[in-house]
Amino acid sequence: MNTFSIAIHGGAGTLVKGMMTPELEAKYKADLKRALDHGYAILESGGTAIDAVEKAVQVLEDSPLFNAGKGSVFTATESHEMDASIMDGKTLNAGGVSLITGIKNPVSLSRDVMEKSEHVFLAGEGAMQFAKELDYKLEEPSYFYDEFRHNQWLEIKDTDSFQLDHSTKKDSKFGTVGAVACDQNGNIAAATSTGGMTNKKWGRVGDSPMIGAGNYANNKTCAISCTGSGEFFIRGVVAYDVACLMEHKGMSIQEASHEVINKRILEIGGDGGLIAVDANGNIAMPFNTEGMYRACKNSQGLEQVSIYKN
Ligand code: ASP
Asked: What is the rounded distance in angstroms from the CA atom of residue 155 to the CA atom of residue 92?
């Protein structure tokens, strides 16, 4: 049997030990572990990588702690616009949604785009129409209300600035959640979901729903989910860049993801991180920020839930 494995993230940024209370830290870790365990249970019972990444991301979207689904940040018009994507490394099928509102689990809508439409990427009103035709229930804005996120927005509303999740004047911390998995058959998949940036406007879209930028999976190379300054991750075509280094330069998953996060994306000014698996179940979780909410588990007994460096 193939070594099976899963890795998840809940965003990267200025996460320095001592900045949050031990109680809050424990809450973050508990929600990461819950998402990890839900995804891992699917792999353990012989389920597919695509089911595992969708489930893990759904659990993170349902947590108010992360900037995705329920915990999404506020836009300039005091609403929520969410982006998500999913990709199956076995078939190279993919789905993405952008600028959607009121959907509890955007990752599942992206999977429906992949499986129930002829398209890869649906945005805005059209994506909402697609959800309506599939009888998606819309949540009230109150479902997505969170006092902390609202205060983040109040601080910068009516200005031209926009912020990555939880960033304060000096600190920055990205939101976004993601999962990558390798199942017992050696098939891999990736999923990513985000509320984007606080106070974003003009229909701003980040890297998370873009196949090849914030999310990618191909059994031949790797499955990747990114978090960080989306504009740079789009320009660096980060997720696909890792796959290219593996395919064309013969790098391992560790080497390729390290090269992209600690060198290539830094050179163009991007900060953040990614999680990656390959079809042998190997995992990499590099980041060039102070920390990244992350966790991983494999069938060889590895299990890790971490926030800070080291
Ligand atoms: N990459 C996401 C975006 O630019 C943000 C994040 O990772 O927090 O929308």
From this structure: 42
Q: Tell me the pairing of strands 121-123 and 283-284.
A: unpaired
Its domain, for residue 64, covers: 5-308
Please state the pTM of the whole predicted model: 0.93
- Ligand 1 closest atom vs CA 204: 9
Ligand 1 atom nearest the C-alpha of 174 is 8
Q: How far is the CA of 162 from the centre of ligand 1 (A)?
A: 12
CB 13 within 8 A of CB 167: yes
Neighbouring C-beta atoms of residue 250, cutoff 10 Å: 9
CATH number at residue 199: 3.60.20.30
pLDDT digits (tens, 9 = 90+) for 63-95: 999 999 998 888 777 778 899 999 999 999 999
The H-assigned helical ranges of the chain are 22-44, 49-61, 106-116, 124-133, 141-144, 147-156, 230-235, 238-249, 253-259, 265-267
Per the structure, how many domains does the chain have?
1
> Residues with Cβ < 8 Å from 38, sequence gap 6 or more?
55, 56, 59
pLDDT tens-digit map of 176-197: 999 999 999 999 999 999 998 8
CA of 46 to the centre of ligand 1 (A): 32
Residue type, 186: G
- Residue listed under structure tokens 């099976």: 4
pLDDT digits (tens, 9 = 90+) for 8-27: 999 998 888 888 899 999 99
Task: Please determine, for residue 167, whether its predicted confidence score (pLDDT) is greater than 50.
Answer: no
